[in-house]
Amino acid sequence: MIAVKRHRDKGAVLIVVLLIVMTITVLSLGYLSGSDVELAVGSNMILHTEMDYTAESALEHARGLIRNPQDISGDYWTGASGQQLVAGSDDYYDVTVSKLSERTYRIITDAYRVRGGEDVGRSGFEAELTLDPIIALWVGNKTTFSDQITINGDVYCGGVFTNGSTIDGDVFSVGLDGNITGRHMAVSELSLEWPRVTAGDFTSHYTVVSSDPVISGVNIGPYDPVRVVRRSGNLLIDGNVTIDGMLLVEGDLRISGSGNSITGGKNLPALLVTGDLIVSGNSELNIFGLGVVDGDMKISSNVVDVNVLGSMFVGGSIEEFATDSSGNERIAVVNGIPTWQTSGGISGGAIEMDGIDDTVVDYEASGYLNGLSGITVSLWVKSDVVNQDRGIFFTSEPSGSDEELGLRYDIAGAFGHGSKGIKASIRTTSGYAQIESSSNVHTTAWQHLALVWQSGSGLKLYINGQQNSLLYNSDPNLGGTVFGVEKFMLGCGTKIGYWDGMMDDVRIYNRALDANDVYPPVEGLNGLVSHWKLDDRGARASFNIAPSRTAIIHWTEIGSSKNWISAGGSFFRSIERK
Ligand SMILES: [Ca+2]
Ligand SMILES: [Ca+2]
C-alpha cells in the first residue's frame, strides 16, 4: 500500500511541477515572442505525464481485477489491449498479467496516444503485485497442530496457536507456542474478515439439490448454472463422492472412506457446514475452493489425507482425535502432541506420552459411563519411569483426591502404606471407593492393567491378568451406579504427574468382565463401549492457498452482494519504467 501511495504522490507532484512549467511557458510567451521551442518542450512534458498517469492507472486496473476475479471467467485476469480511461479519447493502454505464484503477479502496462493513426506518445511500467496476507487456514479458538500438518499460506487463530507443524507463512494469533518460519502478529493486524456465508443466502440465490443423510459412490454436479447440494441435518459422506458446486450441511458433516472431493463452483464456496466437520479414520477429503465450518473441525489421527486447495475457515477449533474401533465413533481428542509409535506397541503401534502435557480425552464419556452398574477399563502401559506419581486415566477435573473413576502409579500409599504401588478409585451414586495395590508393581516393561467393578462388590485391580492382593480398599461392598464422570482422560490422573511412557489397546466395557476374560484381552466380548487401539499415525492434512479459487460473492445483512477473497491486502513490490 505504502509503495503505491508514494507512487501516486510522485505522479501528483509531477503534474503540479508541469503545470507550473506550463504557466511559466505561457507567461514567457509575452516576453519571448515566437519562442516555439519552449512551447514544444512544455507540451512534450505534459504528454509524458499524461501517458505515465494512464500507464499507472492500468496497473491499478490490473490490481483491481486480480483482487476481484469474480467477473473473470478464468483463474485470473491475463490482461487486455486497447483499453481506455476515457472513452473516445486518443489515449489507450494494453495490460499483460502473468501469475508468478499464488501470491505474486507480474503486470506489464503500455500506454499510448494515437493521433491521425500515428503513435505520438508512449509510457509503460513493469510491476510485481503481491497479495498479502492470504489466509490458508482460519481457526476461531485455540488449536494445536502436530507434525503431519502442513500449511502453505497465512494462518489466523483466535486463541493460542500451538504449532508442531510446518507453516510457510505468517501467523495472526492471540498467542503462539512453537516455531514458525514467517512472522507472528496480533489478530488485530489482519485486514480480512470472516466470509459472511449463510445457509439462507445461498439457498435463496441458487437452485438447491437435496441430499440423502448418507451418500457414497456418487458424482454430483457440475451443473450449469451452478447449484447448491443441501442436507438439512447431519450428513455422512461414505467414500467416492465428488460434489461440484457447493455442499451445504445444516448439521454435522462426517467424512469416511477414500476418494471424497468437493469443488466450489464459480463464485460459490465449496463447503458450508453449520455444525462440526468430522474426518474419520482411514478417510480422504479434498476441498478445492473455500471451506467454511461454523463449529469444530475434528480430524482422526489416522486420516489418510485432508487436502485443501483454497482456504479453510473454522469457527471453533481444529482437533485431532484417536481412532475408536468399538463402532461407536467416539471422539477422544489428542492434546499436547504425543508421539505415535507406528510399531513397538503390544498390538501394532502405540501412543507415547511425554509426561508433560500429553493426554487423549473423550469429552463425551459422561454420557455412556455414568449410570453403569458394572464397568471394566482394560489397557496396556509401558512406563519410562518408576517410583513416581503418574496418572494413567481419570474421569473428572483433577482435584488431588482419588474419588472419581481413575487409575495411577503412586509412590506411597496413604492408607495401605505400600510403596511403588497403583492407586485406583471409583465414585458411584452410593459414595466412592479407593484401593491401593501391593508394593513394587511399577515397571518399565509392558504391563496390562484392568480395573473391574460390579455394583455391590469391591473395585478389583488385575495386573497382567492376576487379581492384585490389595493393601487397602475403602469400601469392598460399594453399591450404586457409576457417578461423577465428566470425561475420560488418558494420560493424566487426579494428581500432578502426566503419564511418561507408552499406552496401548485401551478398552472400556459397560460391565464387569469375568476374571478369565480380563487377560489376555480378547475380541468379541459383549459390552465394549470404547476401544482405542492406538495404531494411529497422526492426523495428516495440508492447507494450501489458491486465492482465486476462494473468490466468492456473498451477501451483507441488508442483502447487497459483495465480493470476497481470502487475500486481505495487496501491494506493488516493485514498479519499473519499461
Ligand atoms: Ca507434549
Ligand atoms: Ca496398538
Task: Label this structure with key terms.
578 residues; mainly beta; Jelly Rolls; 16-stranded parallel sheet; 14-stranded mixed sheet; 5 helices; 45 strands; 44% strand; disordered N terminus; binds calcium ion
Number of helices: 5
* Mean pLDDT over the full residue set: 93
Please estimate the helix content.
Answer: 10-25%
CATH topology of the largest domain: Jelly Rolls
Query: What ranges have pLDDT less than 50 throughout 5 or more consecutive residues?
Result: 1-34
Number of individual domains: 3
What is the rounded Rg? Answer: 33 Å
CATH class of the largest domain: Mainly Beta
Measured between the Cα atoms of the first and last residue, the distance is 22 Å
- Determine the strand fraction and express it as a percent band: 35-45%
Which cofactor or ligand species appear?
calcium ion
For the sheet with most strands, the description reads: 16 strands, parallel
| CATH architectural category of the largest domain | Sandwich
* Alpha-beta classification: mainly beta
Q: How many strand segments?
A: 45
Shape: elongated
Description:
This protein has three domains: 2-131 and 570-577, no CATH class; 135-323 and 539-545, no CATH class; 332-532, Jelly Rolls, CATH 2.60.120.200. The chain is built from five helices and 45 strands. It has a 16-stranded parallel β-sheet that branches. A 14-stranded mixed β-sheet has the order 13-16-18-21-23-25-26-29-39-31-32-33-34-38, with no helix packed on it. The longest helix has 32 residues, at 36-67. The protein is elongated. The structure holds calcium ion (2 copies). Residues 336-337, 354, 356-358 line the site of one calcium ion (CA).
